[in-house]
Structures are given as structure tokens and as C-alpha cells.
Amino acid sequence: MNTELFIANRLTSDKENKASFSRPIIKIALVGITLGLAVMIVAVAVVTGFKNEIRQKVIGFGSHIQILNFDSNSSFETQPISKDQDFYPGIAESIPGIRHIQVFATKPGIIKTNKEIEGVVVKGIGSDFDWSFFKQNLVEGEIFVVSDSVKTNDVLISVYLAKLLGLKLHDEFGMYFIDQRPRMRRFKISGIYETSLEELDKTFILADIGHIQRLNNWEYNQVSGFEILVENYKDLDYITFLVRDKVGFNFDEEGNRLKVISIKQKYPQIFDWLSLLDMNVWVILILMVLVAGFNMVSGLIILILDRTNMIGILKALGSENKKVRKIFLYQSAFLISKGLLWGNLIGLSLCYIQYHFRIMKLDQSSYFINYVPINFNVFYFILLNIGTLAITLFMLIFPSYIITNISPAKTIRYN
Q: Which alpha helices (DSSP H) does 170-225 contain, by range?
């Protein structure tokens, strides 16, 4: 039988603590631990959810990896490369972790209606396009079908552009392209999407890649590049390295050098900003753990002072300092666990409410999203609980040495 654990369990019971002067102090320490863990859970869930949401939206527009013409051009007027490459479409089979590869082309243009005019970028897509992202964000209409034989005039436009230009589903509009001379094409809205990523929503419309090939006087097998989707974002850097090793040093049939860039290289300002959020999370976690730890340190000292007579009697009966310290460390672990239980209940409840009802809103123009997203990652929550318990108990080891200074003779005589 573990005597120290038995005594600690008895000391923690409500019957033993009902008349104790330390009870209010312990309750304050428990509240500190509860609120600290709740704040940590909410902070981790919000920040990881925010990063995942923004990252998925950016990747939805630009994929994980792009293969382009190796030139200095960083605009949407691209130099073409041949679609007939050795790695297309079999690269998904040769490099594990690649989910899909597709062709694309881009061209800037100007949409003109009766009242408004707006510059946009047409992203041309082929029959191999992965529609999963835009299907999730489609609010009206339906996606259009791209065929290799027949060119369609249907396009997908964002809610932002539709409102700005006064357009509705199934409306037709003219779009002007400026090269050596202005040229106009008419398109029909087959669907309207909204990703809440305003920076990109106001830029892109999706159309048949055949229009861009025709406008640029390209051959049927010429495209701006290839987009690659990977299975796991965590493997992005490694797969980019493998793709670059396989493709990035090659020349196509027309002598064009190919380059490989990841989405992090294409939009560095967004991904650098998301990386900075990790520092905010670490600051919150460290502060909350320190607050919880110091609360329990003060609580442990009060517990020891409240049980000075008991400590003296145990020592007089032959108990070693180490065993007496174990009693109070066990008791502290019980109390911390109780605080963690309530912290989990409060933190997860707040996350659940926000996840389903989206009560807290954000300024979409500043944060690229109009609500506070939540990411439920059980692994993170388990780590928070284990880390908080371990660090807090570690902080209690040194204060527990106060017990070694308690003299049995003095406490018994005083009693």
C-alpha cells in the first residue's frame, strides 16, 4: 500500500478541507489553473485553426507547388511551356505524397459592365482540374465542365466581384484583354464562390483554358504551367525538393527551362505572417503555465503551513522528509488534475460553441476571413494537459523542501 498516496487522497477530500483555513487559497489556485488551461486551449485552437483556414484557401487558388517557365516574369502574363512533359501526368506515381497534377494558364483582363469596370485575372483550367476546393466554397450555381474538344464560355466568379460589378448568376458580361490591340470576350456566370479570402476573391475568375490559349496565340498544348497538390502540407518542403530535383533542371522541347516554386515562395508575405502567429501562441502558453505554476506554489506553501502539526507528528513517528514531501506533491497533483478537468471543460466548450455557431467575427479585409476559426486537434490538447501538469509539478519540487526545515519537537511542543 502506498501510504503517502493514501494520506494525500484523504487530505484532498472535501470533508478534511471543510474547516481548513487554506481552502479559499486552494480554490484561488484551482481557478488560476482552470482559467490558464482554458485560455491555452482556446489560443491553440484559434491560432492553428486560423493558420489552417488561411493556408487551405491560398492553396485552393494556387495549389501546393507550381511548375513554370524559368524566366524573370512574375506577372500573370506568362511565357508558355509545353503540356507534353515526361512527368505529366505520371509524376504522382513516381513521387509518393503527390495527390494530383493539373495544367493552368493565367491572363489579366478588365471586366466592363454598364456601370462598373474592374481589373481581374482569368485563371484558365483544363479538364484535369481538381474542383474540390471550389465545390466547398460554391454559394450559387454550379461548376462548369471543361472539355478538350469544345470550349465553354462559362466562368466561376466570386461573391465580391459579383456585388462590385452588379452581376448575378447566369448573367453575361464582356471582358477586355489588352495586347497589341484590345480584344473582347463574352462570358456567362455558371457559379459564384466565396472563400472570404478577399485578397484573392477580388482577383481571380475561373474560365476554360482554351480562351487564354486562343488570346495568346498559343498552340493547344501550350500552358502557363502545372499545379501539384500534395497529400500532407507538412511534407511540402520535402516534396518540393523532390519535384525540383526531377523537373527543375530540365528543358522542354522548345528549349525552355522549367522552375519549381512552392506556395510559400509564391505568397511569402502571407506565410511569413502566419509563421509569426506561432510566437504569439508560445508567449501565451508560457505566461499561462507560469501563472498556474506560481498559483500552485503559493497553494502548496499554504497547504504545508496548514498541516505543520501533521508534518511534525509524521516526522516524530519516523517518516523521512522525502516521504512527507511526496504526500504534498501527490495532493498538489490531485488539485492540479481537478483544475485541468475544469479547464478542459471550459476551454473545449468555448471552442465547440465557436466552431458550430461562429459567434466571434473578424474584419475580413484585415484577416482574410470573417470569423474566428477553430481547429480541434486532440494531440495538441493532450500535450497541453501533460505539459501543464508536468511543468507545474516540477515548479513545486523546490518549494516542497520547506518541509525539511520543520522541526517535530517544536511543532509538537507548540501544539
A: 198-201, 209-215
- Say which DSSP state 261 is in: E
What pLDDT digit, counting tens, does each position of 215-265 carry? 999 998 899 999 999 999 999 999 999 999 888 666 656 666 788 999 999
Predicted model pTM = 0.82
**Is residue 211 a contact partner of residue 124, using CB atoms and an 8 Å limit?**
yes
Cis omega (within 30 of 0) on the bond before 373? no
Measured CA to CA, the distance from residue 263 to residue 68 in angstroms comes to 13
Residues paired with 226 in a beta bridge: 67, 103
Distance (Å, whole) CA 305 – CA 308: 5
Beta bridge partners of 191: 141, 156
Q: Which residue has the higher pLDDT, 51 or 320?
A: 51
**Residue 307: half-sphere exposure toward Cβ, Cα within 13 Å:** 26
Do 192 and 141 form a contact (C-beta atoms < 8 A)?
yes
Instruction: Report CA-CA distances (Å) from 132 to 10, 102, 143, 171.
Output: 58, 13, 10, 24
